[in-house]
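W.,

You were right to be curious about this one. When I first looked at the sequence I had no strong expectations either way, so I just let the prediction run and decided to look at it fresh. Below is the sequence, 139 residues in total, followed by the output.
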Amino acid sequence: MSREGDAPRLTELAETLGMEITEFTEGSCVVELTVRGKHLNMGGVAHGGIHATLLDTAMGGTLVSIISKEEWCATAQLDISYLNSVNEGEHIVATAQVVRRGRNLAHVEGKLTTGEGKLVATAKGTWAIWETRPKSRGG
């Protein structure tokens, strides 16, 4: 199954933050962002929520790239290790891989790096998977 060219739609939050899906192929979803003033915390570096949103988007997108179009998934748990700060003007890239996909759960790992390759954060997460879109979500 090839999902290339069928990238998931970004949430309004991700669009507002300026995130962009730059790759969407089977087993991969790459999400990128250039850090601007609006992304900074009170310490003058990228807010951890930016890291989390990039990683969650790339990790969920990577899972979406391998499940069927009828299936639905959602983040059940996300654990992030913040390793290095990111300054205004730096470009950051989130990538992910599905470690294991079961019938109703998937385990996914993500990595956030700068454009120069500096490791910024890592993440591990669990996604719930449903056979069809839940009725409570407009199914």
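Here's what jumped out at me. The domain at 12-137 is CATH 3.10.129.10 (Thiol Ester Dehydrase; Chain A). And, maybe more interesting for your project: The beta strands are 20-25, 28-34, 72-82, 91-101, 105-114, 119-130.

Coffee later to discuss?

I.
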